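Intended use. Records like the one below are meant for learning the mapping from a protein sequence to its folded structure. Do not use them to infer anything beyond what is encoded.
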Amino acid sequence: MSNENQENSGEEELHSPITNMLLTRQNRFERLDLNRVNSRVSSQHRAPLGDITSVSNVISENNSTYGPKTDKPRTIVIEGNIGSGKSTLLKYFDQKKGIEVFPEPVRKWQDVRGTNMLDLLYQDPSRWSFAFQSYVQFTMLQVHQAPTSRRVKMMERSLHSCKYCFIENLYQTRRLQRPEYNVLSEWFDWLQTTKDLHIDHIVYLRSTPEQCEKRIIARSRKEESGIPLDYLRELHQMHEDWLFRRTKFELPAPVLVLDATKPLDDMVEQFTLLEEKLHLQNL
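Structure written out for the chain above:
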């Protein structure tokens, strides 16, 4: 994944490049029906999460740090919006001998027998969402089932967030049609009942859409250059409903919430708290 260690500073420096970028690439998202999306976002308008730091840095469900003891490695899934700092967290824990990290298989999405599916998705979401999400489900299943000899397996996202955040959002915003959504849902339900998708803990990097946008611009991944802020807001609400408010969809594991609004260079403190909470110091 790309380096996210740079931060843009100052609202005036941020908004002008974003505005120019979106104007020059407006045609890539004409099929998103942004008028409808903007109307919905405006009706749900809320200020950025400036008070997010008032939430406890680490929130644990049922105060549990371990599931039943088995011979399997503990599996920890890192969830969060695009640009929330997941790859930075993985780089930190990749230094631990007892932890094997599994980044999102982005490179596979960028080269499916010579076709960049990720780029096609962002160029024309209504046309390519079904094909892209079908391949995402396939590659994420491979990650879930990838073996490791280490005591902890740490994954970037999961099949659950693919379904509960990304596929659900595409369907709600009509970029996936109902028959396509039904097919993806059937596959997901079947995978849950027939494959080992065991998760011990979910770590939610809770940031704001505005902060995520800054990081996306800083890392300059080609395919992401035209992502509208409205799309990040949509995904933020999906993650909040599932992992923070816990009002939609079941949780496959206890959730720990980290404050990811801080600059990435200052996130080490949050990672240290996570180490202590999950007893990852001396693996």
